[in-house]
Amino acid sequence: MTHRMRCDACGAVSPRSVDFGRAQDWQLRHAGRHPSHLTYTETLTRPWRARPQDNR
Ligand SMILES: [Zn+2]
């Protein structure tokens, strides 16, 4: 599962990372550079793999 943060003010996005701390570091640096950008959306991506042999 990977985490990504998106700034709601300007749409900038962090790199995807399996480590939430990396996404959070990006958010804190972004907020430091842009003090008016106060709200963020976190996106979680959970990969799924279909296994045809399990179809019943
Ligand atoms: Zn921003």
From TrEMBL:
Residues 1-54 form the DUF7848 domain. It comes from the Bacteria. Residues 32-56 are annotated as: Disordered. InterPro entries: DUF7848. This is DUF7848 domain-containing protein. It comes from Streptomyces sodiiphilus.
